[in-house]
Design brief:
The chain is mostly helical and 189 residues long. About 8% of the residues have low confidence. The chain has a two-stranded antiparallel ribbon. The chain has one domain: Serine Threonine Protein Phosphatase 5, Tetratricopeptide repeat (Alpha Horseshoe), CATH 1.25.40. The protein is built from 8 helices and 2 strands. It is 53% helix and 2% strand.
């Protein structure tokens, strides 16, 4: 009987250790703008990691992993994705950026991707990390669906047939196919 109880305690200890190693941390969000300056800058310029042995391709991936306490080389892929999603979901309203290149103020990470034409980030954020799509920014009252729609309309009217128009159509389709709904332009839902 003692052996059985000892085995049960041992199994219980391993289960607790596994649960601790696979737990989602309790996150504290950074302050708006200043707290995410590095993430915003690296996303805007789309800079790559110089370390060839790094598991990350882009600096924004590395910075987001740091913020989410996710480690690609130690966490399972599932846990890594869960940590990024949990952090972004909790802190999305604080994760706003001012872009230098496009002169956009107080926009979300997804809007930075649209403003800078970073389709790769947009797709990964939506399809892999499942970023929330319904959050409307305080400054413009638009969510990502509204924003990409306005950008698409602008490029279609001003520069039809341009590569930028095609890019905006691809971004629009990516967001729409992910199930995003309009916030500002609800009549288009």
């Amino acid at each position: 009987m003692r052996i059985i109880i000892s085995i049960l305690f041992l199994i219980s200890g391993f289960c607790d250790l596994y649960a601790q190693e696979n737990a989602i941390p309790d996150y504290t969000c950074e302050k708006k703008l200043l707290g995410y300056a590095k993430l915003c800058r690296t996303l805007e310029v789309n800079s790559t990691v110089e370390d060839e042995e790094s598991p990350y391709t882009y600096e924004y991936e590395e910075e987001l992993a740091r913020l989410a306490k996710a480690d690609y080389s130690k966490d399972s892929e599932e846990l890594y994705i869960k940590k990024i999603n949990a952090y972004v979901t909790k802190c999305m309203s604080c994760m706003i950026c001012n872009t230098l290149r496009t002169r956009k103020e107080q926009i979300s990470l997804l809007k930075v991707a649209v403003a800078t034409g970073n389709l790769d980030f947009l797709r990964r954020a939506i399809q892999v990390y499942h970023y929330p799509l319904d959050l409307a920014d305080d400054i413009d009252g638009m969510n990502i669906m509204d924003y990409v729609y306005e950008e698409k309309e602008y490029w279609t009217k001003k520069f039809p047939g341009s590569k930028e128009e095609e890019l905006m159509w691809n971004m629009y389709k990516t967001v729409k196919n992910a199930g995003a709904k309009f916030h500002k332009y609800q009549s288009l839902n």
